[in-house]
Structures are given as C-alpha cells and as structure tokens.
Amino acid sequence: MLDRIITGGTPAKLPAHRPSRRNEIVDAAIRVFSRNGYVETIIQDVADEAGVVPTAVYYHFAGKDELFNVALHTVIVEMDEAMEKTRPEGEQSGALSLIVAAAWDWIGQHPDHARILYTHLPGTTQQAQVLRREFEEQHIQRAYVYARQTPPEERRHRTAVAAHAASRLSVRTLISMLIAIHPMRLDGGPLSRRSPKALRAAVQVVSERIVSLD
After folding, report:
1. Residue 159 placed within a domain
2. Who contacts 197 (Cβ-Cβ below 8 Å, separation ≥6)?
3. 120: domain CATH number?
4. DSSP label of 20
C-alpha cells in the first residue's frame, strides 16, 4: 500500500512530481488495467489507486494510451528479466525447460501483469500491439537458442528447406502454445482448478517435445 499524507485526519493526495511517483502510478495502472481492462479504465481510476489527483497522472503521461503502453512495456521487461535470471550461462542444455518453468512461476506470482499481457491486449493501442509482436518475435528467436536450434537467418546456406520450415514451425507452435495456455489458468479458466505444479511439469514436457530434433 502506498503511504498517505494525513492532514487533519483526512487522507491527502500525494504530490505529482516526486521522482518515484511515476513508478507508483505505473504500478497502480497495472492493477487497474488488470481489473477493468483497457476500455473500461479511466485516468481517475488510476489516480485513485495511486492515491494522487488526476493531474498528477497527466504530469507524467499524456493520457490513457501512453499510460497503458508504459504499463505493458513494464510488464514485458519484468517478465523478461525473470526469465533471463533463470537462463544458464554457457551450455544451454536444459535451458528451455528452465525458461518455461520460470515464465510459469512468474505469471503465477504476478497475475495482474499476466492479465495485461495475455488477456487485455485485444482492442488496445496500436503501440501495444507492436510491443506484443516484438515480445513474441524476441522469444521465438530465443527459443531457437534454448532448444539448441539454429535461427532461420543462419540457415540460408543450407539446402534442407523442409527441415528449416519444420524447425521454424515447431518454435512458433511452442510460443503460440505458451501464449494460449496462460489465460486458461487465470480467473476461473478451464485450467484454473488444476494443480499448478502438475500443469507446469506437463507444459515443460510438451515444450521439449514440440522442439525436439529427434
């Protein structure tokens, strides 16, 4: 909970320009967008959640679109950092399973973040859609490394076109599967009552099989 300035026993709104205020507003926006979705959220909602006046939000952001874009970018960066911490240095054997597990655990610990990334993006800003595509493409390329496969741009000198296509399809299938499954474990989805531990283990096994070269 954010600290409140108390004046005469009544909570007062916090000043707009404190350096840390911007981050607090972004954190509040993540929670509000997660609860309400993009369309139903207004700046007043975010201001109330952050304990500031609406002008404090506008001090840092031009409007709801920019605030949502920054909130989404924050979610992507935080998830990416959590996954990178898990990635082993040097030999990448077994990295895919570790990364899948790290993403699974992070989403379980940050459901508000996950809803923005996996549930509330349709119908949002154009920039948000660009960020989402970049996020997917980045992890498609990384999956080649995690699975010890060669990215397609490095296969141009090879004649195994069919193998190249199969490799690309398997990695994209993996990413699509991971993106699709997370909303099903949130908010009463069809997988929400299943054991998170068992589901994570199953997803790890399926991920390895999808990209297996054997």
Report:
1. yes
2. none
3. 1.10.357.10
4. T
DSSP state of 154: G
Residue 92 lies in a domain: yes
User: Considering Cα of 187, then 193, then 196, then 198, what sign does the dihedral take?
Assistant: negative
Burial environment of residue 78 by CB neighbours within 10 A (0 to 12, 13 to 18, 19 or more): middle
Q: Rounded CA gap, 103 and 98, in Å?
A: 9
| 202 within some domain | yes
Q: Of the candidates 102, 81, 207, which has an alpha carbon nearest to the alpha carbon of residue 147? A: 207
**Per-residue DSSP letter, 13:** P
Range of the domain at 117: 17-210
**131: confidence class by pLDDT, cuts 50, 70, 90:** confident
CB neighbour class for 48 (10 Å; exposed up to 12, middle 13-18, buried from 19): middle
Cα–Cα distance measured from residue 139 to residue 80, given in angstroms and rounded to the nearest whole number: 9
What does the angle CA 94 – CA 99 – CA 105 come to, to the nearest 5 degrees?
130
Bridge partners (DSSP) of residue 96 are none
Residue at 66: amino acid letter: E
Residues in the chain: 214
Number of domains into which the chain is organized: 1
Taking the whole predicted model, whether its pTM rises above 0.90 is answered as no
CA–CA dist 43, 55 (Å, integer): 9
Q: Token pair for residue 118?
A: 């996996």
Across the range 132-158, mean pLDDT stands at 66
What is the band of 163 on the pLDDT scale with cuts at 50, 70, 90?
Answer: low
